[in-house]
Design brief:
Layout lengths: L7 H13 L2 E3 L11 E3 L1 H20 L4 E3 L8 H7 L1 H4 L1 E6 L6 E3 L3 H4 L4 H9 L7 H9 L2 H4 L4 H4 L1 H13 L8 H8 L4 H4 L16 E4 L2 E4 L9 E4 L4 H6 L1 H7 L6 E10 L14 E11 L2 H8 L20 H18 L7 E5 L11 E9 L2 E12 L1 H10 L5 E2 L1 H8 L3 H21 L4 H20 L2 E2 L2 E8 H12 E7 L5 E7 L10 E5 L5 H14 L5 E3 L5 H11 L3 E5 L13 E6 L5 E5 L3 H9 L1
Parallel strand pairs: 3-9, 19-20, 19-21
Antiparallel strand pairs: 1-2, 4-5, 4-6, 7-8, 9-10, 10-16, 11-12, 12-13, 13-16, 14-15, 17-18, 21-22, 22-23
Helix pairs in contact: 2-21, 3-17, 7-10, 19-20
Length: 611
């Protein structure tokens, strides 16, 4: 039997991050702290470049988005209004044997990652039971890999229950999941099938809610009166400051507010390196739009997403569906602009039963990470839930006034108004039914809301709806590291083969843009010229000066750091060949091609490539 396979690519990426200074374990000299990571010199530059690219794309390059930077700790009532205090929880279980905490809804994602499960999958491919091999494994390697698995603790009894299941006259083939459950259950009749602990195979407690927010206190006295929380997302600050930004930024709906910053979630089981951490950064946009009824009153109709209207420039007749698809496409284009290719993504459109009760639609942009296809960003159509909640809990109005809407509403005929109202009531009734109301109660609530809502529209007032693209910076960094990682194998003239790592970052987000190398460090005139080139480019881009070792080794070091360009200052630069005076050798990381470029032309040549 072969040994269980590990995720080799992830191991290489984690090793590279430590070796080259991309990412370090936080507090490593004290044994580390799970779920927290520090970014080293290259990682800090990479992360800054990614955030700068997002900010420029979302805020600077658009007329309809303003920026915000809010505090990490905010009034605790914000989190009551948003629902985080009451409902922001994950199901947590504890292993009765190894005592480790496990997020119950991720158990079946975690189990296949562990060596004991991989070993069983090899012994019993496709759920086909091989009892003698399982027994041998349980009495051998299983004692080390999964000491608390029922199969290991009491192999004969566990296998007898499994045999009874497999040999039954009407038996169907076991799924892999069922196989693991049988092997984790010592007394099937007494307890039912057990879900094994991913770490040791032991029995898990029943899941219980675990609130993910980090709780703290502000002020000199620690009491219930000054409880606060580290924010679990950046979005709520945007909603809380909506009115201030709307009024001071001189923006009209539709417009957006973008924010980047730290967020904190006390994850039960942080995993997959920087993919799921307890401290992380988000890049979030809340794009506020008119409700469809206001759009219809102003434009006469609402554009259909099925007409591919979202592929063009924003128009006055766009409703929430078109805006939603527009932002899905905009976000994928952003990723393409920093080097990720479209074929690495999947769009997962959440089913109606998967949506949050307030959401009209949500798309998860999934990326093919080395450990599986996982969410990189979510784009949700959240309706007016957030602003309405903050209006309700704060007592402050969160709506806007639109004079053009008031004028347009006054010109609508009664049949049009009745048609719009009927459609609104139908949608609201369905929403109330989804939340558990009976038909009569749902119809009454929908009619009551319609009366208030349409009275406000007639006065030119409404609470904006929102489209929310929300991305994790750290997950994106991991995607970029995985996508950039490549290995180059070369053979020298003596037949010696060498494999080295080349990180093929897009020049726009590469930590260092240009490596600068004097051919020899013991020639003062070469060093002086190289430093002159360094100082010429440094105001425009991140450069790295390196004069240590053979020039080939210096190229290799910068390839491993992901530097897209290298400049070598040699004797021709000094005029050994008069026609090459004040030129340097420009090396391209990806093509390995080298060309001579005049020093005076370097900035103009490189800047368009790295910005």
């Amino acid at each position: 039997m072969s040994e269980p396979k590990e995720n080799v690519l992830m191991e290489k990426i984690v090793s590279l991050c430590k070796r080259r200074g991309f990412v370090f374990q936080s507090s490593e000299i004290y044994g580390g702290i799970n779920g927290f990571w520090d970014y080293g010199q290259l990682g800090a530059e990479l992360k800054r470049n990614v955030k700068d690219a997002w900010w420029k794309t979302i805020v600077h390059h658009r007329d309809d988005v303003a920026g915000l930077e809010a505090t990490i700790i905010m009034h605790p009532k914000i989190w009551e209004a948003s629902g985080h205090v009451a409902t922001f929880a994950d199901p947590m279980s504890t292993c009765k044997h190894c005592k480790k905490l496990v997020r119950f809804d991720q158990v079946w994602e975690m189990i296949p990652e562990n060596a004991w499960a991989q070993a069983i999958a090899e012994i019993c491919p496709d759920g086909l039971v091989e009892s003698p091999a399982l027994l041998a494994w349980a009495k051998g390697k299983g004692k080390h890999l999964a000491p608390n698995l029922a199969l290991v603790r009491n192999p004969e009894v566990t296998l007898s229950f499994l045999a009874a299941r497999v040999d039954a006259p009407d038996a169907t083939r076991l799924t892999t999941k069922e196989l693991y459950q049988y092997l984790a259950t010592e007394q099937v009749g007494a307890t039912g099938l057990q879900t094994p602990c991913p770490h040791c195979g032991g029995e898990l407690t029943a899941p219980r809610p675990f609130n993910l927010m980090f709780k703290s206190h502000y002020g000199p006295v620690e009491s219930d009166d000054n409880v606060c929380y580290l924010r679990p997302e950046t979005a709520q600050a945007i909603f809380a400051q909506f009115k201030n930004v709307h009024e001071t930024a001189r923006q009209k709906v539709p417009f957006g507010i973008g924010q980047m910053g730290k967020a904190f979630r006390n994850e039960v089981t942080p995993r997959n390196f920087i993919f799921r951490s307890r401290e992380f950064e988000q890049m979030e946009l809340e794009f506020f739009i008119k409700p469809d009824e206001a759009v219809e009153a102003l434009a006469g109709s609402v554009a259909k997403a099925s007409d591919n209207a979202w592929q063009g420039e924003p128009q006055a007749d766009w409703g929430w569906e078109v805006w939603h698809k527009y932002w899905v496409e905009q976000r994928i284009r952003f990723y393409e602009g920093i080097g990720l290719t479209r074929d690495r993504f999947e769009e997962y459109w959440q089913k109606p039963e998967e949506l949050a009760h307030y959401a009209r639609a949500c798309v998860d942009i999934l990326y093919k990470f080395p450990f599986g296809t996982q969410e990189l960003e979510g784009i949700a159509a959240r309706g007016d839930f957030d602003l309405s909640q903050h209006e309700k809990h704060s007592g402050k109005p969160m709506g806007v006034f639109d004079e053009e809407l008031r004028a347009a509403w006054g010109k609508l005929d009664e049949a049009k108004k009745a048609s719009m109202r009927a459609k609104f009531v139908l949608g609201k009734t369905a929403a109330f039914l989804k939340k558990g109301a009976d038909e009569t109660e749902a119809a009454q609530q929908a009619e009551a809301e319609a009366t208030v809502y349409f009275d406000k529209l007639a006065k030119g007032q409404y609470i904006p709806h929102v489209i929310e693209p929300s991305a994790g910076v750290d997950r994106l960094i991991l995607a970029l590291l995985a996508d950039a990682y490549s290995e180059l194998t070369t053979t020298d003239e003596k037949g010696k083969t060498e494999t080295r790592v080349v990180m093929k970052f897009h020049p726009r987000i590469a930590p260092v843009k240009v490596g600068i190398f004097p051919l020899l460090k013991n020639k003062p005139e070469l060093v002086a010229k190289a430093k002159e080139v360094r100082d010429l480019l440094r105001p425009h881009m991140t450069v790295f000066y390196d004069d240590g070792g053979a020039i080939g080794r210096r190229y290799a070091r910068q390839d491993e750091a992901g530097t897209p360009f290298g400049l070598t200052i040699d004797f021709d630069t000094l005029g050994e060949k008069p026609e090459l005076l004040d030129t340097v050798t420009l090396r391209d990381r990806d093509t390995q091609q080298q060309t001579r470029v005049a020093i005076k032309d370097l900035a103009g040549l490189l800047l368009p490539k790295v910005r």
